[in-house]
Amino acid sequence: MLRLADFLDSINLRLAMVIRWFALLMLLIQFGIVLGRYVFGINSIAVQESVLYLHASLFMLAAGYTLLVDKHVRVDIFYAAASPTTKRRIDIIGHLILLLPAMCALAWWSWPSVRNSWKILEGPMAVGGIEAVFLLKTLIPAFCLLVSIQSVAILLRLLAGKGVQ
């Protein structure tokens, strides 16, 4: 069970090693946009949209990693003062009753929009923009899959007694 959890962790870990560079790329592109616009008087809608695409990709694809390293938002009303056993129970219930069903529901309800977007290869949001809105919408099921993978990995560890200390 722990080997499977390690394998599932590695998916988000490896993806995060690539995705983290999106932040630097966004910074450089945004700097280029500002420089181009205010120094050289040139502008490109597609280049501006690339920052949006990178930003969306960074946050949607790194969400599983954020869960892996336990840096996600946690409502800490009862959890902070709870014993390790209670924390373990809260985590198991949270993953089984809240997180995994929410990811399934989000994937289920977003899929028709993603499918239709791919069917027509949905074009740019603005004239002159990136002709790949279908890729942007694909981030939604990818997000659901990556968070679900990480949730299962955490659940496996919790059920094996290797979770909260």
Provide structural commentary.
This protein is an all-alpha fold and 165 residues long. It has one domain (2-159). The protein has six helices and no strands. The two termini are 19 Å apart.
Task: Describe what is shown at a glance.
With 165 residues, the chain is mainly alpha-helical.
**Distance between the ends:** 19 Å
Overall pLDDT confidence: 93
Structural category is mainly alpha
Helix content estimate: over 70%
Order of helices and strands: HHHHHH
> Per the principal axes of the C-alpha atoms, what is the gross shape?
elongated
Strand content: under 5%
Number of domains: 1
Question: Uncertain regions: pLDDT < 50 for 5+ in a row?
Answer: none
Radius of gyration: 19 Å
DSSP helical segment count? 6
Report on the biggest sheet: none
Count all strands and give the number. 0
